Amino acid sequence: MLRATRHLRTIRCIPRYYSKNDPPVIEVVDVTPRIKVDDIVGSLKEINFSVDKSRLVQKTYEKDENIPEGKEEENGLTKHLKQRIKAAGPISMSTFMNEALVNSEHGYYRTGTDTQIFGRSGDFVTSPDVSKMFGEMITIWLTTILSKLDQKKPIHLVELGPGKGTLMKDILDVLHRVELTPDFLNVHLVEVSTGLREVQNEVLGSPVTKTEFGRVPIYWHDDLSTLPTDDSVVFLAHEFFDALPVFQFEKTERGWSEVLVDVDQSAEVPQHFHQVLAPGQSVPAKLLENQLSRFKQEVGTRAELAVYSLAFIQQISQIISERSGACLIVDYGTHEKSGFTCRGIYKHEFVNIFEKPGQVDLSVDVDWKEITNAVEDYSNGALMTAGPQSQKGFLTLLGIDSRCSSLLRRETSDEKCAKLLMSYERLVEQMGESYQALCIVPKNMFVVTKEIPGFELEQ
Ligand SMILES: C[S@@+](CC[C@H](N)C(=O)[O-])C[C@H]1O[C@@H](n2cnc3c(N)ncnc32)[C@H](O)[C@@H]1O
């Protein structure tokens, strides 16, 4: 049996990253394929399919006396997933992550409020909330990009997963202060969470109530399909790609085998789910064979494929190459991603990925190689990428040191100076190496990647 073991590491109120030397682990205890057709057929027989689906749910769970002592309390998503697995067999890790994060009734980002997710009271802290200096540096990158675009036509600034809206607020604030807010700028926020949309609306102002940022209209979208179909687009994605589901695979004697999620009935662990290896080649393993060929082909190698991320990158690449624009991604993940990186984050601690499904954040390291390869493929060579470059290098090249010094000079209170220095330290040192920045631009926008602000050290 393949099982995720609990690994806790306390990182109280520090950002959503971990040290390379002490990563959270999903430990494989033993590997024995355990999905049998009989099991699946057996589970199907246990479920009484009837027209009254509400009674079906009740029947399956409230009368389930097979839950051993010591299991954590079942929440709505646990019940839903158990039922789904019982009916149709183990699910992909990607399905599990998708359900846990964005299930319309129980998903983490659908149900969590801003204070439950972000900040001290929540599960993690992100750079825009550490200091305004982060947004100010991103605006320096942005103004150079805007200056390269045709300013006689509208430009669409799209943020993917804007969270509380802090980064966009800080960007618009700077553009407005230096009177650079172009008349032709439209802001689009791609956000699944209705609760967070409300927070963003409050922070930024809706198209009707906007006053603070002049005439910049703000629009919300579920995905990229409803974005305007003409004009240049600049995409920003801060800690967005790490929140997208991945498929997991392990190389076995039989070839690449998909890691699936099954119900755990044992009394050994409090979680209701554990991982198993598909006995045969699952559909994703077959369809993704080509993608898996870039990993080491030794038995025991583990790989994650971020198919949802690739879908976004495909659309972004097509939009930028056809209409011009750019994309800036800042997220965590080392240059060379390897192994399984999916982790659970709850109240500033790493927790088992199967703990309290839907109440715990799940995130993965971004696979920069996968993204850069995809940009090359989907744009037919029309785009170039700069990075990944460490957040430390990126912010330093954009001038965070002099910005911090200038703020310190103006600050009269010792307490505020100490706070400012702590924020600087956090962005540049603590988060400086684990977070990376990657920029995607058309090849005709810059002669070499070294010309792109924040990426001047590129080889
Ligand atoms: C980790 S938070 C990052 C928030 C913000 N960018 C920051 O750095 O503070 C991820 C954000 O992406 C949104 N999100 C997650 N999955 C999404 C999806 N599939 N489509 C659109 N938004 C999504 C979440 O609701 C949330 O706003």
Q: What ligands are attached or bound here?
A: S-adenosylmethionine
How would you sum up the global shape?
Answer: globular
Q: Name the CATH architecture.
A: 3-Layer(aba) Sandwich
Mean pLDDT over all positions: 83
Q: How do the strands of the widest beta sheet line up side by side?
A: 5-4-3-6-11-16-15
Distance between the termini: 46 Å
Poorly predicted spans: 1-63, 207-211
* Beta-strand share of residues: 15-25%
Return Rg in Å. 23 Å
Whole-number tally of structural domains? 1
CATH topology: Rossmann fold
Briefly, what CATH class?
Alpha Beta
- What does the largest sheet look like? 7 strands, mixed
Give an overview in words.
Strands 5-4-3-6-11-16-15 form a seven-stranded mixed sheet, with helices on both faces. With 459 residues, the chain is α+β, with helices and mostly antiparallel strands. The chain is built from 17 helices and 16 strands. It has helices at residues 37-46, 53-62, 76-88, 93-102, 108-111, 114-117, 127-130, 132-148, 166-177, 194-204, 283-287, 289-292, 307-323, 368-378, 391-398, 400-410, 414-430; strands at 9-10, 91-92, 155-160, 185-190, 218-221, 232-238, 247-252, 255-263, 273-277, 302-305, 325-332, 343-346, 349-351, 361-363, 383-390, 435-442. Helix 8 packs across helix 9, helix 13 (307-323) crosses helix 14 (368-378) and helix 16 packs antiparallel against helix 17 (414-430). The chain has a single domain (1-46, 67-459), classed as Rossmann fold.
